[in-house]
Fold this protein.
Amino acid sequence: MSTVENIKNLAFLLFILGTLTAALSRSNAFFLLVALEMGLLGVTLNFLASSLYLSNVAGQAAALIVLTLAACDSVIGLGLLVLAFRVRGSIHFTKFCSLRG
């Protein structure tokens, strides 16, 4: 196997692991954020492997954009989780059933 194939297999594994974790851990918000980050990391590795295979910089630029968006998503998500923990005392989605304005 070549290096590109190994990277693509790792990217596929990370994406599937993130998708399965997101599907199975619907009650805990922290695990949902971690699963989202794993899926985005798999997509980023796929962009980097494609960039390595095609010998151009477009995949690296796309990977940089995806990593920047993932970092922003993590900061906002963890900030909301800290706020939810302070208000409700838990980060489980089952406690957020009341939608009051």
Observations:
- Residues 81 and 87 are 10 Å apart (CA to CA).
